[in-house]
Amino acid sequence: MTGVSDYRKQEESITLAPVDAQMDTATGDGEPAEAAGTETELLTLNMGPHHPATHGVLRLLVSLEGEVIHDVKPIVGYVHTGIEKTCEDKPYWKVIPVIERMDYLAYYFNGMAFSAAVETLMNVEVPPRAQYLRVIHMELNRIMSHLVWLGTSALDLGAISMFWYCFRERETILDLFEMSSGQRMHTRYIQVGGVIEDIPPGFETKLRQFLASMPTRADQYAAILDRNEIVLRRLKGVGAVDAETLLNFGVTGPLLRATGNPWDLRKAAPYCSYDHFDFRIPVGTSGDNYDRYRVRLAEIYESVKIIEQALDGLPEGPYITEDRKVALPPRHELATSMEALIHHFKLVTEGFRPPPGEVYYPIEGPRGELGCFVLSDGSGKPARVHMRDPSFVNLQAFPAMVRDSYIADFIATLAMLDPILGGIDR
Amino acid sequence: MPDAPGLELIAQDLRDNDPDSVLSTVYFRERGTLIVNPAAIRETLRRLRDSGYGFLASVHGVDYHPEEPRLGVHYELLDMTEVDRLTVKVRLHTEAPEVDTVADMWATADFQEREIYDMFGVIFRGHPDLRRILMPEDYEGFPQRRDFPIGGEPVLFTHNEHEIPRYYE
Questions:
Q1: Model confidence pLDDT, tens digit, residues A76-125
Q2: Which of A4, A94, A224, A340 is the most buried (most CB within 10 A)?
Q3: pLDDT in tens, A288-344
Q4: Considering CB atoms only, which of B80, B111, B148 is closest to A396?
């Protein structure tokens, strides 16, 4: 060893201090580098509207102060398709397929909110079996939505294996949806007055197999993520916002529950016989990203419990209301009954006419309060349909979550917000 | 939900303070609605917020065409301790659809009022950033109004971009 090499000497001569500071050092007054006239400048960075990590076509204008986020402006509307306007041009029963495509991960919830609003308008009684079938499918949908959220969020943090695991379970749920309705997505299963069809033979066995495996799978997800250094660094203590601020922003759902506020419409104002089931509302403590992750993961277990109870106690009886003015008559009646044929013809060609009035019907979607407003003017088509979509409202709280945090945590916080752009833009 | 007499009591409380605030009440399907004078909307909502309806669940616009006044803005209030919902609505004429903003009282109203402006053309006085939110910024007209036709708008593709009038403007 004969001292340092020429290369090492050359390398050590390079200093990374700012040019001004180097000049100061050269003059020999020895001031620290910060004092030598450094300036802060805001950098405006455009993210999107096609960033793959934003869960849709979201555009974010970020202004940065170094690595720290100064402010964020979400710009939305890139996938606005005017679904609310389209609804005004369709008979009530044809609105359900388009409205399901708003929040494309919560199609049962969209269908349920709309159907329940129309049922309230018309004072239609939903048979108990239909309510239980709705609960089973909505909770399956909730698990499915949380699985997509977990998979894509982990993908945002660089864990691609989580994505495959979550989508494996999601596939089983989509198979179940296909069994009961014929479609994997946008099933049009929930109808005004009930559901479109009873569950087929074999559905229950397959569902019970899934329910038996799902908690174990969720344990495995937690085992992968809970001790992962990268995940913990991005989630723990990051993006915490207190409950009061969130309520002011109108935020509901897992984001609010992560702060410790147990607001859940399934418990607070039970609809669709949710009061028949025994389940708990998972809450967090500090409202940071980690709590948001844990709350959603815990909700998967609770949904499994609800589905098990609904399957055990599934009442006998009709799966859709017997009111022939609202629901189609059974197929076999068409061959023998003139009445049934007339009802069938009237319902398919024109649909039903709810009395004039307006109703706002809120339910608990996977992302928070999903409310459907329907105005009827007495005709066969709704005069106004509006969806209070939780993603649209929750997005407003995003700047408050990321302000003064590092740009590296930005995508993780956005992933934990779980926005669905189909629901935001409608 | 407040029952029908409860709704009248709320309305009476508000009228005691300002006789012109509540124009009428509607009780339909076990939900109460207060129809409020647009000039008194901020004061009414502030009183309701202080009396417990602290959460603004939704703000949305409605077009009651052909009734007059045509436009409506609905505020869905929620009392989270009593689990009680109340709808407050104002009716506005299309000639001067203006109402005070509540975005400073509830931050959630920001995007939702922008959406109503975008879709119905209601101007929210004092709103911090009243721009279109879902439609393009240079869009003309308010598409959710009932007299706005559906369809008929050419879809822009590369093959027809030169044929669409005023595309470059």
A1: 888 888 899 989 989 999 999 999 999 888 999 999 999 999 999 999 98
A2: A340
A3: 899 999 999 999 999 999 999 999 999 998 999 888 888 888 888 888 989 989 999
A4: B111
- Enter the pTM of the model: 0.87
B39 vs chain A: nearest CA distance in angstroms?
A: 23
User: Angle A311-A317-A322 (CA atoms, 0-180°, nearest 5)?
Assistant: 130
Say yes or no for a CB contact (<8 Å) between A250 and B56: yes
Which CATH number describes the domain made up of B4-125? 3.30.460.80
pLDDT digits 0-9 by tens, B16-65 = 888 888 888 888 888 889 999 898 899 899 989 998 898 999 999 999 98
pLDDT in tens, A197-234: 899 999 999 999 999 999 999 999 999 888 888 888 88
Tokens of A403: 């302000």
| Residue corresponding to tokens 């409310």 | A371
How many Cα atoms occupy the beta-carbon half-sphere of B47 within 13 Å?
17
* B62 in contact with chain A, both atoms CB, cutoff 8 A: yes
**CA-CA distance, A100 to B8, in Å (whole number)?**
37
Which of A355, A407, A403 has its CA nearest to residue A377? Answer: A355
HSE-CB at A353 with a 13 A cutoff on CA atoms is 9
* Residue B96 touches chain A, beta carbons under 8 Å: no
Provide the residue ranges of all domains of chain B, joining segments of one domain with +.
4-125
Gap from B146 CA to chain A (nearest CA, Å): 8
Q: List CB contacts of B13: < 8 A, sequence separation 6 or more.
A: B47, B51
**A83, A125, A249, A256: best mutation site toward chain B, by most B Cβ within 10 Å?**
A249
**Residue A371 to residue B58, Cβ atoms within 8 A:** yes
> Is the C-alpha dihedral spanning B127, B128, B133, B138 positive or negative?
positive
A77-388 domain in CATH 1.10.645.10? yes
Q: How many residues are present in chain A?
A: 426
The reply to whether residue A76 touches residue B87, judged by beta carbons under 8 angstroms, is no
Q: Choosing among B58, B114, B147, which should be mutated to test the A contact, i.e. which has the most A CBs within 10 A?
A: B58
| Domains of chain A by residue range | 77-388
DSSP letters spanning B107-130 = TTHHHHHHHHHHHH--EEET-TT-
